[in-house]
Write a structure and sequence with these properties.
Helix content is about 20%, strand content about 25%. It has about 240 residues and is α+β, with helices and mostly antiparallel strands. Strands 1, 4, 6, 7, 8, 9, 11 and 12 form an eight-stranded antiparallel beta sheet that branches. A hairpin with a 4-residue loop joins strand 2 and strand 3. Helix 1 packs across helix 2. The N and C termini lie far apart (about 170 Å).
Length: about 240
Amino acid sequence: MVQNKKTSSKIQKFLSGKGFYIALAFCLLAVGASAYTAVRLNSEPEPEAPYVADGQNEPDVNWGDQQANVPATDVPDTRAETQAPAETQPQTEAPKQEEKSTAFMLPLGEEISMDYSNGEMVYSKTMDDWRVHTGIDFKGAANTEVKAISAGTVKSVRTDEMYGVVIEIDHGNGIVARYCGLAQNPTVSEGKEVAAGDVIGRVGTVPCEASEESHLHLEIRSDGKLTDPLEILGKAG
């Protein structure tokens, strides 16, 4: 008991002297150190997570339906035009193919003694056989005028054993007519231009059809093919 009292008395003396200030200084240092540590801990940033190269920790970003490098279609184009529009070339109509003229006239009256056979065999009184009749026979007395069915150019004037004096006229558009069985000395010659209705000769004789009534044998070729003369003359049917 006596010893404890002595110890307590020493402490009281220490605190009442310089020891009080020493103890106070230690307390202040302890408080300052605690405050500095707390402030530093609060101010330091948390360490970032390490980057993972395999992509397992990459964020899942939803890019939507728009793919890369695909231009948007709803954005107006405000760029100024840098190239003048190409000039529109005027369209030219293709030349129309010339139609074959139907302005033909009959070369001699309207009475026909034998029709075009169109490839069928018919009996010939003169030759006493069956053969194709390649033209139309227009009745006409000897020396009756024969006229051009349309305007054209005389291609030839010649005498044929079977058809007598023959005048061939190119009437254009692929139409070539042969006027057969004319009298001698026709009124036209090779190369002459004729108009529709011009007299080109007179009715003579067709040797291969001499037993028939006097007539003009008319043949027409269209683009080189024998054709029914009445179709070209617009009298078929």
